[in-house]
Write a structure and sequence with these properties.
Elements lengths: L2 H8 L21 E9 L2 E2 L9 E5 L2 E5 L4 E7 L6 E7 L6 H15 L3 E5 L2 E6 L2 E7 L12 E7 L6 E2 L4 E6 L2 E6 L2 E10 L2 E9 L6 H13 L2 E8 L2 E5 L5 E6 L2
Antiparallel strand pairs: 1-2, 1-3, 1-9, 3-4, 4-5, 5-6, 7-8, 8-9, 10-11, 10-12, 10-18, 12-13, 13-14, 14-15, 15-16, 16-17, 17-18
């Protein structure tokens, strides 16, 4: 049984910000951690089916997700606590159950949970709730099932323009779904080597800001018909036949 499991089973949690015996100092940034166990009051806390909690900190910025909306913000990991400031959450139309789970996850992060790390495992806890996570090996992200953030767009002969607002895409099971600031998009996406054939792309019709609409137009310009996909570790470029591009990065 590893060190963190001993902590969970025996309940040997330090008071305040003391460092737990056997753990290592310093939060390890640029690594994605995903949940392997969640308990509340010493009992398993069920999550919605298929949910994996994911968390990554890079250059003092946090990205986290509990199956639904993305939580982001600046974070301080000093004194063995995660103190998130400027916490933001995307507002996409998930089910009431998923939104409730998102709210619970946001409250957990907002409470400034303590953390302890040993090797490739991370333990977070606050007010009787404990989340044990394991580091995901760094490797090339697959095109499918990765949460791709749209970072910028470009046209032939022009420099990339930052997206400015949140947008993400997920390719899965012959389809593409995603959130474009305030609207959902979905359609067919057949992957064949380095090409994605996009078809039947649709979008919800919520009222959005001008910046949101500009990004939606740029995304729809590219995601039409045969799209070239250039994947490099955690970066993805999608290019249409006219040379218009979406520049994406993996959230986790």
């Amino acid at each position: 049984m590893n060190t963190l499991t001993h902590f969970i089973v025996l309940g040997v949690l330090a008071v305040g910000t003391a460092v737990l015996p056997g753990t290592e100092p310093g939060f390890e940034e640029d690594r994605t951690f995903q949940s392997v166990a969640v308990t509340q009051g010493g009992q398993p806390r069920p999550l919605l089916p298929g949910t994996v909690i994911r968390l990554r900190i890079t250059d003092g910025s946090l990205r986290a997700q509990a199956g639904g909306n993305l939580v982001s913000g600046r974070v301080d990991t000093g004194d063995a606590r995660l103190v998130v400031t400027g916490q933001r959450t995307t507002d996409l139309s998930y089910s009431p159950e998923q939104r409730a789970q998102d709210a619970w996850w946001g409250q957990f992060l907002g409470a400034g949970p303590q953390w302890a790390r040993t090797g490739d495992e991370l333990l977070l806890w606050v007010d009787g709730t404990q989340i044990r996570l394991a580091a995901v090996p760094e490797a090339d992200r697959p095109l499918a099932q990765t949460y791709w953030l749209v970072e910028s767009t470009s046209r032939p002969g022009t420099a990339p323009v930052p997206a400015g607002v949140h947008a993400h895409l997920v390719f899965h099971g012959g389809a593409v779904t995603g959130g474009l600031a305030c609207n959902w998009l979905d359609g067919g996406a057949a992957v064949d080597g380095g090409t994605v054939l996009v078809s039947g792309l649709g979008l919800t019709k919520r009222m959005c800001r001008e910046a949101d609409i500009r990004l939606e137009i740029a995304v729809f310009d590219v995601l039409d018909g045969a799209v070239a996909a250039d994947l490099d570790v955690d970066r993805l470029e999608l290019t249409d036949a006219d040379g218009n591009r979406l520049h994406l990065g993996a959230a986790f």
